[in-house]
Amino acid sequence: MIDQFYTEIDKIIKNKATIMLVEDDYWKRSELEEFCLSENLLCYSFSNADDALTQLVLIKPDLIITDWKLPGKLDGLSFIQQIRKQYARDIPVLFMTACAEPDTHYKALKAKATAFINKMDNIEILDEQIKSLLLFRPKGCKLDKQNTPFLYERALPKSDLEVIKEFHICSKQYFREAQNIKKILSKLEATLIIKEVKIRSVLKKHLGVSPQQYVISYGLYLASKMLLDNISSQEISYYLGYKDVSNFVHAFKKKYGLPPKEYKMSELLSV
User: Fold this and answer.
1) Among 255, 174, 167, 178, which Cα is nearest to 203's?
2) Cα 58 from Cα 24, distance rounded (Å)
């Protein structure tokens, strides 16, 4: 039952284009976050590419915007190269820098960036660039009887559905945090003024789960999809923040009744 709920929530959320923003400058990152909010874009922001890379398969953005000079092991160019090599050959990537050298544009395109923009350009130029890169993205669906029957039949109050949607969106960014539930709840309270008691009440009322149960179950649901994309159990356990793969396998078997390899085989045979 709850997996159908996750499927339909993901469909609805897909109506908003999803942006992965990688920018270490706090003020520039905040400006771009505000811009995405004003344009009704769903923005997952990171201050370094190392963290962003671990979340890529979970967030599945429609567009990646990355700065060049970043802290950590990966700069923007290395980040793009890793994206193209390991994860996503078709996601558009907008490369952004304020310190462009004469051959920077060439280096960005050689790394397989889709487009290049100077950070100092007017926000209107960025707006048009983003719109053009998102032009052909796959769209989500509206809440209706045909596309989202599970949600439609339950007739959740709009306010409750919005609470669940925001919790659902925020959870993707913090799967790997040791205190993920606290971080998700505090983030929602700080940015959207959604109280923890409200989140707990809505989840319990409509799904019979706690916030922690919701996030764990949603992570395993995503794992079931990643398995069919030929991502290994070792990689999935890392992405979801399990300390070792045996813990992930145990949790997966508890939810689906089969260990990951057998589940994948049964799903492929049923197609």
Assistant:
1) 167
2) 21
User: Looking at the structure, do residues 129 and 154 belong to the same domain, yes or no?
Assistant: no
- Cα 67 to Cα 136: distance, rounded to the nearest angstrom: 24
The residue-averaged pLDDT of 46-68 equals 93
51, 93 contact by CB (below 8 A): no
Owning domain of residue 225? 149-270
CA dihedral 25, 62, 33, 102 (to 10 degrees): 40
What would the mean pLDDT of 57-82 be, rounded to a whole number? 93
Count how many domains the chain has: 2
Which among 186, 165, 185, 257 has a CA at the least distance from the CA of 220?
Answer: 257
Residues 25 and 63 in one domain: yes
Is 105:114 a contact under the CB 8 Å cutoff? no
Domain containing 50 — which CATH number? 3.40.50.2300
∠ CA 252-254-259, nearest 5°, is: 50
**21 neighbors 33 (Cβ within 8 angstroms):** yes
Confidence of residue 179 (pLDDT cuts 50, 70, 90): low
The answer to whether 80 and 113 have CB atoms below 8 angstroms apart is yes
Of 73, 99, 133, which residue sits at a domain end?
133
Q: pLDDT for 40-52, tens place per residue?
A: 899 999 999 999 9
**Nearest alpha-carbon partner for 125 in 42, 35, 211:** 35
pLDDT digits (tens, 9 = 90+) for 193-243: 899 999 999 999 999 999 999 999 999 999 999 999 889 999 999 889 898
